[in-house]
Amino acid sequence: MPNLRRELTNVPNLVTMGRVAFIPFVLLFIDNFSPLRSFIASLLYLGAAAGDALDGYLARSRGEVSMLGKFLDPLADKLIVTAVLVFMVALSRVPAWVVVVIVGRDLTINGLRSIASAQGLVISASAGGKIKTGLQLVAIMMLLIYFRYPVLGTGITVDYHRAGLIVLYVSMAVSVISAAQYLRHFLSAALAQPRAPA
Known about the structure:
The protein is mostly helical.
């Protein structure tokens, strides 16, 4: 218990929990009719996303990598992304089926990781998963900005809602491909294990 108390109060884990605390404020400012509120929501989301790099850096630099942190960090990522996407479905910014695919993929991979860990299998994260995360960040930022804005110095106007949807579709495709790769690696590692005697 003292060890858990220490992990709960170390700086990296406090940053991670702070990221989760950002979620209600991001949702509060998402607005289909106010460009200012939508822009504030995008900045808050960016702050929560930036905290992902910060808590990891702090954990490594301070020598405070913990089991609780390893659990909280990916949980915070999934909570932030899922909460914002589900809320945007309610506001008709994102098709529901896309969110079902994204959330379903993450649940499947998390389940496979749990099984792999329990069986002592080590399956490294794929490059596709990292690309998916980056694309997802850009897509959600654009979907939060939502409105059309001119690009400075050009006569071009960007529809951030449409651009965000395109990037989200690409990130969904990459996430499905990376899930298939992970499943293949998982099955290869599982089949390579020696059979236990009957």
